[in-house]
Design brief:
single chain; Helicase, Ruva Protein, domain 3; Arc Repressor Mutant, subunit A; 8 helices; flat
Amino acid sequence: PGPCLQRLLDKLAARTVVLPPLRERTEDIRELLTALAPRPAPGSPPLTWTLDALRALEQHPWPGNVTELAHVVHALAEHRRASGPVRRAELPDPVREGPASRPLSPMEHAERATILETLHRHGGNKSRAAAALGIGRATLYRKLREYEG
């Protein structure tokens, strides 16, 4: 590369971008759905989602991160025959069925108790509780969802 490009590459190489996994950024899913959806044909409506479908998408652990979400969106856009918002029933089985329900392990019980106690100690303020626990707010929200019920 030329000298200008090499200097740019050197500067960029010194930067580190930390991007948490999608399961820790479920608040990004709705925006990603819009960004990942292919442009509809002229006169066709864009993909939209029912609240139930959105909940299923937000609860899925996304082991393949954004790439997996992109595959789901593209497959639906390509093969979908129904009109109107995408329903939960149209989602792939692993996404539609959600995480398997199982009893909490002793470690998860302890974690849940610590989270709830910290939340109580901070008057229900999730930002302060997350900071006190040393985790991100998105992680706190995800753990609270996991331990619901």
